[in-house]
Amino acid sequence: MLQTILEYFLHLDVHLAELTLAYGPWIYLILFLIIFCETGLIFMPFLPGDSLLFAVGALASIPSSGIDVMTVWCLLVFAAVLGDNVNYQVGQAVGPKIFTRPKSLLFNPKHLVSTQRFYVDYGARAVIFARFMPIFRTFAPFVAGVARMPLKKYILFSCLGSLLWMSSFIGAGFFFGNIPKIKSNFHYVIVAVILVSFLPLLIAAIRKPSQSPS
């Protein structure tokens, strides 16, 4: 299973092209569901985000691919905003109870605590910043709901963050994904995108002051 997951992540361009050929226009629904689930379901932070968007942009730049860049951009912005707001509503409704649940295979309360600290440090900007941080972008909407962030304010930052996220990664894939050197080394590019996505988390972990024993 691990080998299959790794194969999928490293060759997103190949598998995405195969799915597009196999399912035609239904690929839009598949992509919509992936982005919606990654942002809207708190137990789905492991789904591909940034790397998938880059691959989508690269594939959309090929005229014969069957993917229209503006259509997929609009659709995935909507998926991200909708997922965010579903997650926010769930956080408002059941958040306090979730914080007391024991750790499980699919759910680790420590992620919520880390996201809550990030939210406290950066306030409303965390909604935008979290868009570019794997795991955090799944938990930030939930924590915003738990914290009772004003809905209108949350929707504003959610829309802005979604627009920036989609434009950055789909745009990067569209304009640079099919440059010959990049295309021939696409698996390295995907690894680089994943590493860059986790870089803020690594920096935060390094800068986190060690707690002195009481």
Count of β-strands: 0
| Average predicted confidence as pLDDT | 79
Sheet with most strands: none
**Shape summary:** globular
The SSE string, one letter per element, is HHHHHHHHHHH
Class by SSE composition: mainly alpha
Low-pLDDT runs:
210-214
Intertermini distance: 43 Å
Query: Roughly how many Å is the radius of gyration?
Result: 18 Å
Q: What percentage of amino acids are in beta strands?
A: under 5%
Helix percent reads over 70%
Number of helices, counting only DSSP H or I runs of 4 residues or more: 11
Q: Can you tell me the number of structural domains? A: 1
Explain what this protein looks like in three dimensions.
By secondary structure, the chain is an all-alpha fold. The chain has one domain (2-205). 75% of the residues lie in helices and 0% in strands. It contains eleven helices and no strands. It has helices at 2-10, 12-23, 26-40, 50-60, 69-98, 109-122, 125-129, 136-146, 151-176, 180-184, 186-207. Helix 2 crosses helix 4, helix 3 (26-40) runs parallel beside helix 5 and helix 5 (69-98) crosses helix 9. The radius of gyration is 18 Å and the shape is globular. Mean pLDDT is 79; it is low at 210-214.
